[in-house]
Amino acid sequence: MKSVTLSALLMLIAPAAFACETVRVGDLTVQHAWSKVTIGAGRPGVLYVEITNNGSDDDALIGVTTPVASMPMLHETVVTDGIASMPHAMSIPVPAGQTVELAPGGYHGMLMGLTAALKDGDKFPVTLTFEKAGEATVTVDVLPLRAEGPDCADAEQ
Amino acid sequence: MRLRNLQIALWTLALAASVAFVALRWWPAGTPNDIEAAFVPTFQLADAQGTMRTSDEFRGKFLLVFFGFTSCPDICPTTLSEVAQVMDDLGVDADRVQPIFISIDPERDRRLGLQAYTEAFHPAILGLAGTDAQTRAAADSFKVFFGREDDAAASDGYTMSHSPGLFLIGPDGAWLRQFAYGTPAADILSDLQSRF
Lengths: 157, 196
What we know:
The complex is a heterodimer.
Chain A: H1 2-17, E1 23-25, E2 28-36, E3 45-53, E4 59-65, E5 69-76, E6 78-80, E7 83-85, E8 92-94, E9 99-102, E10 107-114, E11 123-130, E12 134-143
Parallel strand pairs in A: 2-12
Antiparallel strand pairs in A: 1-2, 2-3, 3-9, 3-10, 4-8, 4-11, 5-10, 6-7, 11-12
Chain B: H1 2-26, E1 44-46, E2 52-54, E3 62-68, H2 75-90, E4 97-103, H3 106-112, H4 114-121, E5 126-128, H5 132-141, E6 146-150, E7 158-162, E8 166-169, E9 175-179, H6 185-193
Parallel strand pairs in B: 3-4, 4-5
Antiparallel strand pairs in B: 1-2, 3-8, 6-7, 8-9
Helix pairs in contact in B: 2-6
């Protein structure tokens, strides 16, 4: 009986302890924050995340900080005339009523100056700064190199 | 007489259709497919051990060639992950395909460790990093662009722009096609299998 209670308790807290944290700040919902394993600490890590603006005012992601990297920045992968470049994004628009994805091949956070290599299963906090909504800190899940995104069981996917 | 008019009309239409067909078939499409006309790209670049490798030694195999740099956080890992998946899914046919990663940032990539990088994706991937001149020659031969962009905010003060495609070379060394960035592994796999 005791183990059944314990199992039930574990099942309740497990979803929060594992991946796929959802954080709300103002009208914004931040979720599905993930990163990939890095090969050594000398190469930058990546940050992908999904931001939904449920409000009626446009907002913008203007900064990112994390204790695991001394120089985190926002970038956008742009392919123009068959050439891929990665300009620094000063801000990423989060228009009212829309969802913006930082995802492979588009906007992403680039985590330079890693304090240590990112390993499969690691978790680390990232604080996103929005022009209007302020700051939101979300837990980032480090996934294997070949991952295409987090496997979240939540209904908001 | 009315029948003759109809005949003329039909023949005119048939001729117009033929002209349109030929035009569409042979007119340059203005897409990356333009460069699918046969040419034989070559390279001469050192591998992670410092051994010189040349395009000639891979005759008989299909080559999947990607130009990238190991400090690239987004496009390069995504493409190399697709390549790794393809190599796994090829099964017994994997030895018919040689995946090659050519560094466009060779000095920094050698310093950061080329082999550790390619191995993290798949042990079959051969990493090559030549001199600047050899790298430029290989890229020109593949008709690939790359450039160094100074960016004070980036690691070491610069980043690279490059053609993000994955290039397929045939067993005779001739260019076959490119897979655009983001082509799913399954599509690359079925293309390869259709050529065996």
